[in-house]
Amino acid sequence: MIENRPGLNILAHVTLILGVVVVAMPVWVAFVASTHTATDFSSGTIPMWPGPHLVENYRTMLDTGLSTSGTPPVGQMMVNSMIMALSIAIGKICISMLSAFAIVYFRFPFRGLAFWCIFITLMLPVEVRIVPSFQVVADLGLLNSYAGLSLPLIASATATFLFRQVFLTIPDELTEAARIDGAGPMKFFRDILLPLSRTNMAALFVILFIYGWNQYIWPLLITTEPQYYTIVAGIKRMADVVDGLPKWHLVMATAIMAMLPPVAVVIGMQRLFVKGLVETEK
C-alpha cells in the first residue's frame, strides 16, 4: 500500500521547480540578451524580459555573421558542426559494433587482450593525446577538412564496451539456431544483432551526437579557414575581441541557435533513448 503524504509531494514538487529554475535561468538570460542591442548592456544591468530586436539579431547572424570576429554566418558553422557530429556518432557506432561483434562471436588468439587494449584507451581522451593527434592529422594533410574534424574522434572504447555487454546477453541458442539455418557471420550480424541493438544504438547516438556537437578544443586547433569553423568554436572566436567590447547580444543569439539541434535530437529520440538506457532484457 502506497501512503499519500501531501507534505512530501509538495516538497518534491518545490525541489523540482527550483531545479528547473536553476537550470533554465542561464538559458533565459541568454535568450533575453539575444533580443536586445549592445547598448542595453552598457549600463551594467541585464534586462530580464525580451526586447524588440529578436528577428533583427537572429537574421544578422544567419545572413552575414559577425564580421569583426572573422567568423562566417551561423548557418554555415551549424552545417559544419552537424557534419562533424553525425560523422562522429555514426562512425563510433559502426566501428564499435563491428569490434564488439568480433570480440564476442569470433574465437581468435588474444581476443581478451585486444578488448582490454581497446578499453584502456578510455584513459587517453583527445585532450591527453592532442599533440600527437594534431601531428598525424597535419602530416596526412587533413587540416581544415571534415575528415580532420571527425576521424581522430571516431574510435570509442565506451561504445565498444556497451555493445559487447549487449551481445553477451543474447542467448547462445539464438546463435546456434542461426548457424543451423545456414546464416553466415555477416547475415547473423545484419538480421539478428542489428535489430536487437536498435534501442542501444539510439541511446548511444544521442550521447555521441551531443559529444561531437559540443567539441571545442579539437575544432579550434585544426581549423584556420572560416569555412570549416564549427558553431562552438565560433562562439569562442566571437567573444574574443581585441579592440572593443564583444557584441554580446549577437553572441547570445548564436549560443541559442547552437542549442537547438542537440535539443531537437534529444526530444525526437527521447523514447528510444530512455528505452535504450533502461532496457535489460532482450
Automatic annotation (TrEMBL):
GO annotation (BP), single: transmembrane transport
GO cellular component terms attached to this protein's record: plasma membrane
Keyword Nucleotide-binding: no
Coiled coil: none
PROSITE patterns: ABC_TM1
Keywords noted in UniProt: Cell inner membrane, Cell membrane, Membrane, Transmembrane, Transmembrane helix, Transport
Main location class: membrane
Taxonomy, superkingdom: Bacteria
Protein topology in the membrane: Multi-pass membrane protein
InterPro entries: MetI-like (IPR000515), MetI-like_sf (IPR035906)
All copies of domain ABC transmembrane type-1, residue ranges: 78-269
Location in or out of the cell: Cell inner membrane; Cell membrane
Transmembrane segments: 12-33, 82-106, 113-131, 151-171, 192-213, 248-267
Subunit and interaction comment: The complex is composed of two ATP-binding proteins (UgpC), two transmembrane proteins (UgpA and UgpE) and a solute-binding protein (UgpB).
Function: Part of the ABC transporter complex UgpBAEC involved in sn-glycerol-3-phosphate (G3P) import. Probably responsible for the translocation of the substrate across the membrane.
Family indicated by similarity: Belongs to the binding-protein-dependent transport system permease family.
UniProt protein name: sn-glycerol-3-phosphate transport system permease protein UgpE
Originating organism: Paracoccus onubensis
